[in-house]
Amino acid sequence: MNSPESVLDPAGPQSRQIGGLTWLFIWTCVIVFFMVMGTLVGALAHRRKDQAMGPSREPITHPDPIRERRLWTTVWASIVLTVGTLFTLLFADLLSGRAIHKVSQSPDPLRIQIIAHQWWWEVHYIDWPARFGERSASNGITTANEIHIPVDPAHPVTVEFELDSHDVIHSFWVPNLHGKRDIIPGHPTSLWLQADRPGTYWGECGEFCGYQHAQMRLVVVAEPAEKFQSWLDGQRQSAPEPTGEMQARGRDVFLHASCAMCHSIQGTDAHASVGPDLTHVASRKILAAGAVPNMPGHLAGWIMDPQRIKPGTRMPQNNLSAGDLRALLEYIETLK
Amino acid sequence: MSEAILHTETTELRAPAQPEAVASPVADELGPENERLALERTWRRPPGFLGWLTTTDHKEIGLRYIKTAFGFFVLAGILALHMRVQLALPKNTFLTNDVYNQFFTTHGTAMMFLFAVPMMEGMGIYLVPLMVGTRNVSFPRLLNFSYYLYLIGGICLFTGLAFNMGPDMGWFAYTPLSGPQYAPGHRMDLWSQMVTCVEISGMAAGVEIVTTVFKQRAPGMSLNRIPIFVWTQLVTSFMIIFAMPAITLCSTMLSMDRLTHLKTHFYNPAEGGDALLWQHLFWFFAHPEVYIIFIPATGFVSDIIIAFSRRRAFGYTALVLSMVATAFIGFGVWVHHMFATPLPRLGQGMFTAASLMIVVPNGVQMFCWLATLWSGRRPRFELPLVWVIAFIVVFLIGGLSGVILASVSVNVQATDTFFVVAHLHYVLIGGAVFPLFGAFYYWFPKWTGRMLNTAAGWWHFALFFIGFNLTFWPMHHLGLRGMTRRRYTYPEETGWMTLNMVATIGAFLMAAGVLVFIVNAMWSRRRGRVAGDNPWQAGTLEWATSSPPPSYNFLYPPTVRGREPLWEPEKEAPVIVGLSREKRQVLSTTVLDAAPHHRYDLAGESIWPFFLAFGVAATLMLGGIFNPWYVPGGIAVITLALFGWFWTSPALRERPSAQPHVAGQPRLWWLGRRGKSADVKSKDE
Amino acid sequence: MTLPAALSCKREERSFRVAPPFVEMPEAIPYNNRVRPGPFATTTPSTSQPVSVERLSHEPFGRQYLINAQALSDGQTLYGAFNCSGCHANGGGGMGPPLLDNKWFYGAEPEQVYVSILEGRPNGMPSYRGRIPDYQMWELVGYVLSLSGQASPNAAAGRSEHMTTALPPNSTPREKPEVVPQPTTGPATGKTATQPTTTSQPRQNGQ
Amino acid sequence: MYRFSKFRAWVGGALGIFLPLLNSTSLSAAEPAGDDGQWTMATKDYGNVRFSGLDQINTQNAKSLKLSWTFSTGVFRGQEAAPLVVGNTMYVVTPFPNYLYALDLNKPGTVKWKYDPKAEAAAKGEACCDWVNRGAAYAEGRIFYNTLDANTVAVDAASGKEIWKTKIGDINKGETITMAPMTVKGKVYVGISGGEFGVRGRLTCVSAADGKILWRAYSCGPDKDCLIGPRFHPFYDSDKGTDLGVKTWPPGHWKIGGGTIWGFLSYDPETNLLFYGMGNPGSWNPDLRPGDNKWSCGCFARDADTGEAVWYYQWSPHDEFDHDGINECMLLELKVDGPDKPARKVLVHPGRTGYMYVLDRATGQVLSADPFTRITASKGVDLKSGRSITNEEKRPRIGKVIRDVQPASPGAKDWQPSAYSPRTGLLYVPHQNLTCDYEAVEANYIAGTPYLGVNERMYAGPGGYRGKFMAWDPVARKEVWGIKENFPVWSGTVVTAGDVAFYGTMDRHFKCVNAKTGEVLWDFETDSGIIGQPVTFKGPDGKQYVAVLAGVGGWAGAIVAGQLDPRDPSAALGFVNAVKDLPDHTKPGDKLYVFALP
Amino acid sequence: MPEAVETIDVNGRRVLDVSGLPNTAMDAYAPVWWGNALLIMIESMTVLLVVASYFYLRRNFTEWPPPQPRTIPPLFHPVPDLALPTIELVLIVLSCLPMYWTDMAARRNDEAGVKRGLWVMLAIGVAMIALRFFEMQSSHLKFRWDDNAYGSIIWTILGLHLTYLLGAAAEFFIMQMWIVKHSFDPKHGLDVTLLGGYWYWTAATWVLCYGTVYIGARF
């Protein structure tokens, strides 16, 4: 019953705040629950000593006023207790909201633009602290469904996600790191988070968005700054030139079949942007927004019959000859 | 329209006014038996299919509401079972994503719009006139109309599903996903028109109940003596009146956005529309909707607790005021459904506070129930009470998870996950279905004259209670572990399988429980133990008449001297005489004190309401789905029906009835009777 | 009320997967048009295309798309994604001819439109052979025809979540298609004058 | 007076080119020193001034202008070309299929020969805004012009024989050519069109002798490709740095970055510099290309021999509304510093952005930038940083219609060239008053298909008129007079020493106006709307003639030329909405009109 | 004043004899009044929500109303024409007077007065509908409903109010028919007073809608 994506397994200051708050709420609720249950059992089972409360079935139309007053005192006390508890909870919520807001402010964040599509995540790194390289438009990277963020206890890096959607409402959610943020067309928004321990955190689309809402996942890889740096540098490279004949043929297949109508690979003539950028597709952990792991066999299945894996996805079925498919796979494997 | 009838009536109406002859105590020589026969003739609905179609009897229509709503409950439940099977295993292929989407949308829609609200309305329609001691609701034809509109709406939804036209964008149909571009075909059109139909019907029922409660209470039943269930219905009806315009408006806007030739831009962000407008309007309706469902259920709870603890309610005023407070605050918390959307933080804080505040009146209610139980006589564990106790347990969990969700920070983690699914089922099943089953066991004898089988009832309870908790408790965990709602599949590595499997097993237990109940009800209505008038020795007026009640409800409508009239030590409250036996006449009282004010003639059977319901539904369905040019034609039909309705509604002053009843039933009575008796063969013959 | 519902089966069907058979595209056919969108092609891989014969089995091949809401909606998406809208705008035309009207240079039968997309046309329409899977081409055909009201108005796409442009396909009056020759260089009046003419008698209609 | 003839074609390029050029430079400074009466390049002169020294037609007699003869080209598409007059021959380039006619002026209108470059028909689908051609250039007895399918041809002026044909671009990638080439010293400079297709803009220098490509200067990409070297000294800091053509784009995007060159080039023989503007960056939708998108939408000064960049100024960094920077750069000497100070060598550019830029020709410093039309798209030009100030309220966003953006995509003024009269000291600027609703949408790059990502609908700005012919005083920096026209004034203009200016309208009027007062002296109704460039020349009979091609089309007239459907306001990239009623006013045309005094 | 009498009947039961009570009631004493009032509440809620939507959508525009690019020449700040709606406003406000007289006549059981009043009101209702027909043209409103969200919401507001007018006119008509065909009776007297309430409400709603659509657009 171990689950990798849990709200109660926080990995960043924001989610830790929320996690703590959640526990506070849960325990308060547990206590309240048992108090009420105790009262309920008492109400049903306690012995009625009073004369007027005897075993008769006669209805009580004029209850004993003294008893009533005593009961009222209890009820009032409970109400006061309830209100007090609620105020405490409200206060705790406001405090944690403020705390989250505070840790979310950073003058020099790693800014990542996320464009949610039916049904995948387009990821652009648009700005970053200076130490991760020159800050220019051309130094940014474009990837899909996989976000790498640095973990640096010495100089924590706050990540600002700029969220937008160009089709329907999606919701960006990485349970281990922060709560959801709905991405509503016409209402671009942003979300700040931070990871303070390395790990691989799964994310989901939180708002129902159509046929493949279920398979619109993303993965956030939090890694030490050096690793992140090398990942970033790697992603900044163009795709390598094919080395063998097979790979060259694979690239030809990519460029000349329908692939290049939707996908781009930096360094080649494919610049389409309907589908994910595939320049470094082989370095990613998942395919098709988490529908299948990124392994050659799955990749082949995905290319040939995506509608079986993810019915309704925009990726069309293809039918490549065995040789072409093999060549294509071999080429794609080089796109680290 | 029958010329003959109109003609004769015209001449008669022009006759000089005479003092009206009514049954007076002096004229009542034959006593109750004569009264009974006369009332029977006046109030019984005409026989045959037309009689069935045109009935205005609140009991008949109320029961129809209940049965229909229960039918939709079962259908929607079957859809839920399919969904649970699909989710039992990761990467399951039992349902395709398309079918799954249609199923969960139809499930949610049917449960919210076709089951929960109409069920509560049905209970109110059946019980409120009885509880306030009158013979029928104020506008009986409106009742007929609202039922058929509801029925047609519901049938359309499920017919659509059967024909691959089930809505598939979730029961809150967020735009732009439900808009013209992303929801091709007519699936969402059908949904929004269905919603409009059902909500119009709901508003009609709301008007009905408010007027009945305000104007037709038994003399002496001042506002502070109204049974709590009637209060809940009153408050609910007001909520309906204020909340439902929002959904009819926003679903109409959605239809207009989608509809050929109209294609407006309310939700098109490019042309200045706003997807958030939908959310605001929808939740402005849909949050109060939860209370529309829940508050009547608290009425069941209160009345059952009162009956079983055998004492008058502890904190009657507190109960009523907290209910009213809930209703008010319920209109101010809709934004907590939208905490994850980009809204200003300050606003979110205020809505958090409001959402937490709503705990207070609910807490007060809970304390009052507990205090009533505590200070009443030791209760016998009959099934109604057992369900209510289960309600307290389950609803408390739902309420507390609601407290968790009221916090913005926690909400953004938990919203749109299975945690919310768990919460809303705990609140809605716990808060409404548990009391409802209690109410079924409690009032079944009133409806049928027979008790439900207790052994089967216990099985039902055990299966349902255990099944319910097995199904929905794990969902809290699933939600916190990242399982978002509305997903038709999930990968294995998420580790969600075990809990899902448990939930699926629970769902089948619940289904088995419901099955037991259905069998029990079928069996008991004919073969159950005969109940007698008041099997629970309860104190409210519905138990003052026979079980099941006669068509005229009370031979002599009661007056009231206290809050639990049947428990009042002074049993000798006077009964009412002097209402016309020949017309469907009821006593109208004043709003606050329920002092007798005047006699009020109710309308009789007519085909026009059905015709109108059909016209409205056809206009909405054809004009709102296929082509707006159907609308003018539909309006013509609607106008015609309204004219017919108006033309045949009763005049206040009618010709004195010289003879006790009209000889010979006019051939075209169904075009509209003025509430006069038809010549129906009485039972004795 | 059940009547429209009964009619809905085909319209509302959502079938995403194209059933086999796959057909080998005969590469021997010479291109009608040397403009082929996408990266420059030196060789053509031997792709074969999933063909949509059995996608829906109610109507004859090719016409099934005109009555299926999902196919028409997909067609709308593809029309934008493959830049059809760049030349034909939202039906009003631009670099390419308008698609809203009743004039068709190469025929308005679904098969003819299909060939236009597949092979291109000599006056600038590129050939999408091998670039777009066959069934998606048919979806495009359906959408393109729906622009002039040729598709079932109940299945055709409604307004998109964009700027108001032309009437959406579900509101477009059904045009009667008419095949007209393309006015390559001739005047709009129909007179085809390709020979240069000179007048030395000045016609004075100004001052 | 230097006069070309086929017998003297052997005279070297340098000499042959220089003389008209000397004319223009001297003209711009002082009294017109007469005119040879020829029209050897579309721009008339290297300075893009379009001033003719002929003065037979003047404000007094203009009203009696009569149609002299006409010629029908047989190509009913947008006629944007300027006819060339060399000696006794007039050369007319038609829209696709880009026929070149040589007409004998001795026997008015007779065809000497016709040359058909056999341009590829498929190019028609790759041309954004009709199949236009903006004219040819003459040098050394050869006519140079570009065909739509991205070839440059050299045709023997006498015989009509093709001398060479060089492929400049690939229509498979959406590369076409509509511009008129310019020849300087034995070199032919050719740009490329296709900013709507995400091509990589460049200026190609072709040897006039044999058609060999000498160098290419790209408008985006690494400095090496853009021929940016040690000589490059832009005035403003934002243009300094290495490889800005790469760094101001998202990775790899410069390969499809646009910055095409399809307007008129200017040349300053004193400094041997070429000046030209670059078009819009690839994909109209600005969201897809964060950054300044160098070197698109700007102006380069390059060495005419080597192509080395000398300075650069960007009219609209990170262009948001397809405000191409290709409008002509007029090389003038103006007393911008004050009446007492010496005249300064400036470059005047009536920008699509709606500002009249006056730049120092040597450094690229912006001396002034004044709005000459209503502007909501930006809030002015910051002279300190040289950047235009964005109006955040009108910033395009995906999925949101931004309303009332003026100037619309065709800009306050599009390609239609202005003229300058040194006699009046005024600029004559045909332009339009269009605003638009603009919605960015997702765009997909597929080579050979449009790369736009915008829904647009244009409409007339406040006032309701869509076009204007305006006289602008570049020294006083204000409008002197203006004539409002119902439709955009999409034709070029010419001003003469007779103090008259000519322009045509899309609703078929060819007008002659008093250059000083703006009074309309003469108005002739043609067969079709006019979007061409009027020229004036001295015929073999010594009379002054005025010629213009009438045939509506181009972007503005696409609704007529392409028979587009006015029900779709976004047709023709949104222009159709602005000129929905154009089909009621004109039909396509193919005619050359030549006028003269009786 | 008749009232219910508590007495003992012949069978010796305590009874409340209500036979002396009238069987007519006016205003809030009548159940129908409540039905009418509640329906008006529902509709008021609808109108308020539509108006709220109007202002909500307004936030999405920098100019309101936005420029109208469809016409030639295009319109900038194309506020809807004031003339017709103002006539409507004056007419509907003034018409409350004859409605009031009719209302009073009904209370007096003055059949002739009611008839006269209903004819006038029917004429006014039809006139309002006719005016609305001319008003609901793109040439007056400057926008079609499918131009943008502004067009959609103003058409919806006007259309919604039109349905109220249609309903009122239909009621005037049927009421008049009844009174002509049969005779006046207290039930229909009550109906006429309720119709009066409805009409006042319709007028008030128009003031709100007018203020929103016509005046609101000018600020």
Please provide a written account of the structure.
The complex is a heteropentamer of chains A (336), B (685), C (207), D (598) and E (219). Chain A has 336 residues and is α+β, with helices and mostly antiparallel strands. Helix content of chain A is 36%, strand content 20%. Chain A has 7 helices and 12 strands. In chain A, the strands form 3 sheets. A 5-stranded mixed β-sheet of chain A has the order 3-2-1-5-8. In chain A, strands 4-10-9-6-7 form a 5-stranded mixed β-sheet. A two-stranded antiparallel sheet of chain A has the order 11-12. In chain A, strand 6 and strand 7 form a beta hairpin. In chain A, helix 1 (13-45) runs antiparallel to helix 2 and helix 4 packs across helix 7. Chain B is an all-alpha fold and 685 residues long. Chain B has a domain at 26-271 and 532-652 and 665-685. Helices cover 61% and strands 2% of the residues of chain B. Chain B has 19 helices and 3 strands. A two-stranded antiparallel sheet of chain B has the order 2-3. Chain C has a domain at 51-159: Cytochrome Bc1 Complex, Chain D, domain 2. In chain C, the strands form 2 sheets. A two-stranded antiparallel sheet of chain C has the order 1-2. Chain C has a two-stranded parallel ribbon with strand order 3-4. In chain C, helix 2 packs across helix 5. Chain C is globular and about 40 Å long. Chains in contact: A-B, A-C, A-D, B-C, B-D, B-E, C-D, D-E.
| Annotated CATH topology of the largest domain in chain A | Immunoglobulin-like
The CATH superfamily title of the largest domain in chain A:
Cupredoxins -  blue copper proteins
* pLDDT < 50 runs, ≥5 residues of chain B: 1-27, 652-664, 675-685
Encode the helix/strand succession of chain A as letters.
Answer: HHEEEEEEEEEEHHEEHHH
Examine the secondary-structure arrangement and name the CATH architecture of the largest domain in chain A.
Sandwich
Structural class of chain A: alpha+beta
Task: Characterize the main sheet of chain A.
Answer: 5 strands, mixed
Main interface pair?
Answer: A-B, 94 and 93 residues
Counted by DSSP, the helix tally of chain B is 19
Largest sheet of chain B: 2 strands, antiparallel
- Round the mean pLDDT of chain B to the nearest integer and report it: 87
What's the count of strands of chain A?
12
- Report the average pLDDT across residues of chain A: 89
Number of separate domains of chain A: 2
Listing every helix as H and every strand as E from the N terminus to the C terminus, the arrangement of chain B reads HHHHHHHHHHHHHHHHHEEEHH
Helix content of chain A: 25-40%
